[in-house]
Amino acid sequence: MKRVLVCDDDLAISEIVALVLTDADWEVYTLPDCNDIIEKIESINPSVIFMDNKIPDEGGIKATQIIKSHPEHQEIPVIYFTANNDIDALAEKAGADFILQKPFNISELEETVSKAFKAYKENLSE
Questions:
Q1: Which of 105, 119, 111 is nearest to 74 (CA)?
Q2: How far apart are CA 90 and CA 99, in angstroms?
Q3: How many CA atoms lie within 13 A of 69 on its CB side?
Q4: Residues 63-91: pLDDT tens digits?
Q5: How many CA atoms lie less than 13 Å away from 20 in the CB half-sphere?
Q6: What DSSP state is assigned to residue 76?
Q7: Residue 47 and residue 55 in contact, taking contact as beta carbons nearer than 8 Å
Q8: Which domains does the chain show, CATH number per domain?
Q9: What does the radius of gyration of the chain's CA atoms come to, in whole angstroms?
């Protein structure tokens, strides 16, 4: 099952992502914060994670660093998404695998999540 976790405190963004990806046969989970991110990942078991930059309480950089430093979850692709013009630098600092600049269009969303899922499957087969 293709399962995605969307971490964004903007309900409208989360709803758009959920709508588009549900139509593309994804099981979508949304979170308005990144508190206890490892426990949430363990309960959801996502294939891909979308991480907003300015999300309560830790923030996207710290939350992504926590995920990427965890031995059991570091292989889950993280798509860093923000409207910040410094998205490349922020994503690099966080250790994210992919970026998606806000605002995005549906084809960019679908293309990015497809690339991330392909990377996830490749990591599983190694």
A1: 119
A2: 10
A3: 9
A4: 999 999 999 999 999 999 999 999 999 99
A5: 18
A6: S
A7: no
A8: 3-125 (3.40.50.2300)
A9: 13
